[in-house]
Specification:
This protein has 2 domains: 3-147, 3-Layer(bba) Sandwich (Glucose Oxidase, domain 1), CATH 3.50.30.20; 156-353, Rossmann fold, CATH 3.40.50. The chain contains 10 helices and 19 strands. The chain is an alpha/beta fold. Helix 8 packs across helix 9. The strands form 3 sheets. The protein has a 10-stranded mixed beta sheet, with helices on both faces. A 7-stranded mixed barrel has the order 1-2-8-6-4-3-9.
Length: 360
């Protein structure tokens, strides 16, 4: 056992070092997905976090070039029960440990992930530190308790694109504001025929409008939505001027921009099997989710109606303002490798872009 995890409450977990060497601090969270670990590793929404996978074996199909969700992984650390070193997949170019080493991600293998997840569920997400060094546990505990919380960090500036880039097409011109964009969002819009331009998160409403979009999507991203003051101001300048869509963090920012409030969940929603009820269509869907904050239902303005609800805890999963042509979802309709139940959300947005009524 040559690596340790120390949580802010003093809990100690020992394991085997995988990936890079050194020390890393972050908010320790967990994901319950059985597949899709590469997409999860490269989801920028995990910036600032140490991710624990609940599924006991990770890496059996390796790493493939086609399945990245961003230019690199942004998470602070990775924890698994068992890491497969000999993947079986003709598309694989390397195993997960080699990928972690290549991207300087510290990882921990061999601990009881069931016990760790149970502790997070009971006490809530906590800061933690992983080390492969000989630092005394007392010193590690001091370091982790002196580290900033996830709500104190500006993480969007770390993950957003530095320059605009475009995926050309002949359809509607859609601007995607990169708050920590999963590329599957852009892929989904491009496959639907859209001309997609991805823009940096710091642009204001007037700068966004200079690209002459027919609609604007505010993407997923990491951290506390209240830290994204620039994006909130941009939203306030765009609402009512053209169709807008918010996904995950973007959903939360829409609520804040219209006078609503958000709150931190105890341990978040992260996994590929979260049930959501569409209140408009009276149907239930299985969704992929990754967020640690949620919208307060009680403080939303009247014009912003709740369209979807989480069936596990009742939290707000979707909102709509028909007059302003505004649609939001808390989960990921672009999820890959699935589930694909909620792809219809893009159709609703594109109907608004094209000037029609959202179809059922």
């Amino acid at each position: 056992m040559d690596a340790r995890l120390v949580l802010e409450d003093g809990s100690l977990y020992q394991g085997i070092s995988r990936g890079a060497k050194g020390e890393t601090v972050g908010e320790v969270v967990f994901n319950t997905s059985m597949t899709g670990y590469q997409e999860i590793l490269t989801d920028p929404s995990y910036c600032g976090q140490i991710l624990t996978m609940t599924f006991p074996l990770i890496g059996n199909y390796g790493i493939t070039e086609e399945d990245f969700e961003s230019r690199r992984p942004f998470l602070r650390g990775f924890i698994v029960h068992e890491l497969c070193s000999r993947p079986s997949n003709w598309r694989s170019i390397m195993n997960v440990e080699e990928y972690l080493q290549q991207n300087n991600i510290i990882a921990l293998e061999g601990l009881d992930t069931r016990a760790l997840v149970r502790q997070i569920r009971e006490k809530g997400a906590m800061r933690g530190i992983i080390t492969t060094e000989d630092t005394p546990n007392k010193t590690l505990l001091e370091k982790v308790n002196n580290a900033p919380t996830i709500s104190e960090m500006d993480l969007i500036s770390e993950v957003t694109t530095e320059q605009p880039y475009t995926w050309e097409n002949r359809g509607p011109r859609i601007a995607v504001i990169d708050l920590g964009l999963k590329l599957s969002i852009a892929r989904s819009l491009h496959r639907a025929g859209c001309h997609v331009t991805v823009l940096p998160a710091h642009l204001g409403a007037e700068e966004i409008m200079e690209f002459k979009p027919d609609g604007v999507v505010f993407s997923n991203g990491p951290g506390d939505p209240r830290q994204a003051s620039g994006a909130i101001k941009a939203l306030q300048g765009l609402i009512g001027k053209l169709p807008l869509m918010g996904i995950c963090l973007g959903h939360q920012l829409v609520a804040l921009a219209m006078g609503g409030k958000t709150f931190k969940l105890k341990f978040g929603h992260r996994g590929a099997n979260h049930p959501v009820k569409d209140l408009v269509r009276d149907k239930n869907y299985i969704t992929s989710q990754n967020h640690g904050f949620a919208v307060e239902a009680e403080n939303l303005p009247r014009e912003l109606s709740i369209t979807q609800q989480n069936l596990n805890d009742g939290t707000v999963e979707g909102m709509m303002d028909k007059k302003a042509k505004l649609t939001t979802v808390q989960y990921h309709p672009e999820a890959f490798p699935g589930p694909f139940d909620s792809n219809y959300i893009f159709d609703i947005f594109l109907d608004q872009v094209k000037g029609g009524e959202p179809h059922a």
